[in-house]
Design goal:
The protein is α/β, with parallel strands linked by helices and about 400 residues long. The protein is built from ten helices and 20 strands.
Length: about 400
């Protein structure tokens, strides 16, 4: 169940325990992660695919050490986009053979490190990157496993900043690149081993029709590589599954996971390939909240402001994407009147708004608010702008707490 209201307060609720969040509500902003919920979602994906899937968690969503340790302990791999993420993963128990490296701007140092450590595969985004991998491997007399990131030209229904599989995006290569890809692969035969195809069309997707379209467009390309004699082993359908930001009840997330598994399995059943998925937000987003204290209530002739001690420096999504997070009181006041507030932070930017026109119980100075679904792209996108300190991170697992050290 994860985060629910019980006896007028927000708690973490699971079959074997209830954890009262008010025990963590001191005066500093704190991200709270429910590690049991992360585990439940991993198992849900495994079951949705009948365990015929390799889960590679997208580290960019949340690189907390305890989450990465749990990912490794459950036998999952990771999807990384930098040397820092490779180091974070390996330090927390993820083996090199369970690392997939994505990203459009891989440096020489990053590629060398990937080859030296023997990671599972590099998702190649451009011809020049493929050439660079070939030259590096030739110089090192090593072989790298690569998967071509195919851009299927699918216009996913999501925010423009997180679309990644449309022809106008910077990611991947479309069908027009194939003749040159074949030439480069032939040039570096013996050093670059082509083993799979990868797609990723966007983030926060809740309509699965674009996934279906993207996979159907990609299957013929996969088969072209097979016809050229390449031993294709993996079909990477990417990540991007969205979560229900508009509800505390997360049953929709689990239904989406089951439907996703069913659709992907059916579409790829005849390819005799290993399916790779790269979930990020769907694993950690709803498993985290951000607790913050109201510093001031400011009433003007135009609107009411609740000014809190967190903001865009801790949770950038509302300012960057105009994303909407539910904001709830930690303690519900029986019989309280409701008012409308803009929930704003301390940063010297008008964009520092966490919620506009939030209809909520009447608030007062010192109240604790809970910004829901902050477990993905929260701490990992945070900054020290205005030289504000980072928020704390606390992990709850089986009713016990662990504080992250930074």
């Amino acid at each position: 169940m994860s985060f629910v209201f019980e006896n007028n307060q927000l708690v973490i609720k699971h079959e074997n325990y209830t954890f009262e969040l008010k025990s963590l509500a001191n005066k500093t902003p704190v991200f709270v992660y429910d590690l049991n919920e992360v585990e439940n979602r991993i198992r849900a994906i495994q079951e949705a695919f009948d365990h015929q899937v390799d889960i590679h968690y997208a580290v960019k969503a949340n690189y907390n050490d305890f989450i990465l340790k749990q990912i490794a302990q459950l036998g999952c791999g990771v999807d990384v986009v930098s040397l820092g993420e490779i180091d974070a993963a390996t330090l927390n128990g993820v083996s090199a053979k369970n690392i997939v490296f994505s990203g459009v701007a891989k440096s020489v140092a990053e590629i060398k490190k990937s080859v030296e450590t023997g990671i599972k595969q590099i998702n190649v985004e451009s011809l020049q990157e493929l050439e660079r991998i070939g030259e590096i491997c030739k110089g090192m007399n090593r072989v790298a496993n690569v998967s071509i990131r195919f851009n299927p030209d699918v216009d996913a229904d999501t925010h423009p900043y997180i679309k990644t599989g449309f022809r106008e995006n910077k990611f991947g290569m479309d069908q027009s690149f194939l003749p040159d890809i074949f030439k480069v692969l032939e040039k570096y035969k013996g050093f670059v081993k082509m083993i799979g195809l990868s797609i990723h069309i966007g983030s926060q997707l809740q309509d699965l029709k674009p996934y279906t379209e993207a996979i159907l467009k990609s299957i013929p390309v996969y088969k072209q590589f097979q016809e050229k004699g390449y031993e294709m082993k993996t079909f990477n359908v990417g990540g991007g599954l969205g979560i229900a930001y508009d509800s505390i009840n997360k049953q929709r997330d689990y239904l989406l996971i089951r439907e996703f598994g069913m659709i992907v399995k059916d579409l790829l059943k005849d390819l005799n390939t290993r399916i790779i998925v790269e979930p990020g937000r769907i694993l950690t987003g709803a498993a985290g909240i951000l607790l913050t204290e109201i510093q001031y209530i400011k009433q003007t002739p135009y609107k009411n402001f609740a000014i809190v001690n967190t903001g865009m420096h801790h949770l950038l999504r509302p300012a960057l994407y105009q994303a909407k997070h539910m904001i709830e009181p930690l303690i519900q006041k029986a019989g309280s009147n409701k008012e409308t507030y803009d929930i704003v932070g301390p940063i010297c930017e008008s964009a520092d708004t966490l919620g506009e026109q939030v209809y909520i119980q009447e608030l007062k100075q010192g109240d604790i608010l809970c910004i829901m679904d902050a477990g993905a792209y929260g701490y990992s996108m945070s900054s020290d702008y205005n030289l504000q300190p980072k928020a704390r991170e606390v992990i709850v697992y089986d009713g016990e707490t662990i504080e992250a050290k930074h």
